[in-house]
Amino acid sequence: MKHQGIQQRFLCAVAFATLGIVSLPSSAHSGEYARSYEQGYPDEYERQNHHKDYSRRTPYIRIEEARYGLRGASCDARRSLQAAVGSHRHVSVAINNNLCGDPVPGVQKRIRITYSCDNGEVFELRVPERDVATLYCR
Question: Is residue 104 scored above 90 in pLDDT?
Fold first, then answer.
């Protein structure tokens, strides 16, 4: 009888250990699921409640002109600025020499940006170097 009780305890211990090993992958899966949920939920909420169209091929903000430098010595920053804007309605871009080079070394420059929105509105910004340009369309 004593031997049978030890055998039952041993079998119970093996069963619990097996359950712990089997349940380990499911708890790891739960962690992965939680991370995916946390990352995906805000995107889905934004898509559903703010009516963003993530399948858009044309940008909300179109850079019409972007000259970086000083009068008489500037470069065209339109292409790099449009790439930075992407398909967002609201974006902030750092104004620095990374946009199109340094047309006037050692002198503080500025950028003049003309952009249009998909609703037809047109805006112009003038932003000094080492500042941030914020472009916004409704």
Answer: yes
pTM: 0.58
Structure tokens at 36: 């995916």
Examine the pLDDT at 92 and tell me if it is beyond 50. Answer: yes
Tokens standing for 127?
């932003």
In this structure, the answer to whether residues 38 and 75 fall within a common structural domain is: no
Determine phi and psi for 78, rounding to 5 degrees. -60, -50
Q: Is there a contact between 85 and 93 (Cβ–Cβ < 8 Å)?
A: yes
> Which of 33, 128, 133, 51 lies closest to 90 in space, CA to CA?
133
Query: Are residues 130 and 89 located together in one domain of the fold?
Result: yes
Strand partners, 62: 116
Q: What DSSP element (H or E) covers 92?
A: strand 90-94
Q: What SS3 state is found at 111? A: strand
